[in-house]
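Reopening this one. Same input as before:
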Amino acid sequence: MPRQNARAEKNKDIGVLELVRESLVAVVKEMRANIIHSSYSSIIYEGHDFSCALVSADGRLLAQSLDDNPLHIFAVPHSAREIVRVFSGDIHEGDVFLHNDPYTGGTHLNDVLMLYPVFSGGKLVLFAAARCHWGDVGGSTPGSLSGRVTEILQEGIRIVPTRICEKGKLNEPFLELLFQNMRNPAERRGDFKTMLGTSRKAEQHVQRLLTRFGVEKLLSSIDELMRRSEQVMRERIRACPDGVYYAEGYIESNGNDHEPIVARLKLTIDGDRMIADFTGTAPQTRGPTNVGPSMAPNAVCTIAKAFLDPKTSINHGSFEPIEVIAPVGSFINARWPAPCGGMVEVKALLDSLMVAALGQAMPEMIAGALKGGANHTLIGGNDPKWGSFLFYEYPAGGTGASKDLDGGTVVRAFSDGDFNSVQSIEVVESSLPLRVESYGIRENSCGDGKNRGGFGMRRCIRVLSDSASLSILSDRNVIPPYGVMGGVYGAPNHFVVKRGENLVEPSAHPGKVAGFALSDGDIVVMETAGGGGYGDPLERDPEKVLKDVALGYLSADEAFRRYGVSISPNLRIDLETTRKKREEIRSARVFLSLQLVNTELLEGFKRIVELPRAAATRLSVAEGALVEIVTPDHASPRAWVRIVDGSGDTLRIDAATLALLAAEVGDRVEVRAVRTAAH
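Same output, byte for byte:
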């Protein structure tokens, strides 16, 4: 009987834990529904660019739904901890706090956090948190995001931890100051009220849970849930092979010069611990491609969770075994006055580094790179008929291919959350002086592979106003998304303005545009990147290539050039011609033996490889061209070419490049030219 009683008591405790866990997530889901149904900005109710969470009294993440934006997983508790630090011992019932400062845990200025304390019996129990992307927070261009700013003051109002409501009394003068320094203040106030009402509703739900379980039982159950999450993550890390894994990638420019900006990762797995060290990453930049201290942990922990423990609930316990080293003053841990509008672009780069590094330890999980970050595209102005208007989209593209699947076409990635690909045509055309001229899949944009990456989109927006400007903040317009396991990169992003019969580049820095003047009738053409491929394209089933051609995703000419598959106009495969073409493609590949040099091969932040002139001729690349070193078992590192005299078949590299390749001197590797323009 005692043993049966003990078992019954244990089952009862497990039941309570499940009830607490599901109840907390239910509160967050209710918050999400309230915000979607009552917000004023289309970026929130259409785009779902917001997140909700419950946070402990000391700033740890307690609950977040699977629909929420992963960008906010660490930013929300990081901001919460900063507010707790600033107002330590001075937080009361009825207080409400705002925060958007990137340097103390925010994302970019548009993402405004509201933190709402919940008390019981005079004791602070937890916080309800809502972080929403406000369509505009001031700054030099409509929408507050652009690719050419040089300091954060040009991006809008920076809200350090601020008590906006004290013991139930709103600070109306301060709110008015905020809203009057933002475009469309009525919309901003509406979104603020939505967040406030949602937080109050969340408090009511939490109070019911406190009544049901009691304060101590609820808090002890939360602690146990986090302990169990930590235990699961430690077990999953322990199952990975111990080792040191390297990855490297680039932001292609800061919007003010053409020099790429490097991020370097050394990932160490040691027993049940994971250490992500970004030492060697470039300093903060004069452009918007910087982030504050919460983004590197965000990227590392998001990918670790997705790879190792994707199915259990999200709370802070999962991240306790993970240490992140992000050097202060680097562009991944920037300080004032660095602008941080391109936070999503930097996060996408850091995500890709984690996928590349952790994928070496777990090759069955690796996938080709994504289309990049948010692809922020903003058209705004003041029109006599429409008044102040703002179009803001973040067009989706292709996702990377994996071991068993082609990449997704024009969909959000696993690291995006419940975003929409774009806004509905009806919303755009009924509320803005714009017309959606066309919208479809971007032909030939996939990254080739045994499994191909997803295709990007092509979307054309006609301007119907004489007072409008275009701003764009995106990446992977020059350096395309990588392939893995021998797969090929996808087409890069491309943004252009069609003016009459002419195509006009809106900036000398691709994907980085600030306030480009538009005229009535101009068409903004958005072409998003394709995802990276997985595996050798010559191993792709010809029937799958045929299917893409039949659907209009891939032209027959490109199918022949890239996959070697010969397809007739009546959609039949010529197997013999296909066999011969594939042999021709295979024999034309350039393989070189790795030779180590004793000096570091760098030009600024660019990694350099020395290529014999004869090999450069075979690859049709010039001095300074971008190439990738194809690896059959993980992502393909990129480098810039220095041509040296000689006709040998060696590729001269330094020790850091050898570590990136996880190779040995003398190994033969394929070298592939990277086309830095759209297919």
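So the earlier flakiness isn't reproducible anymore. For the record, The chain has four domains: 2-231, 367-540, 542-587, 589-673.
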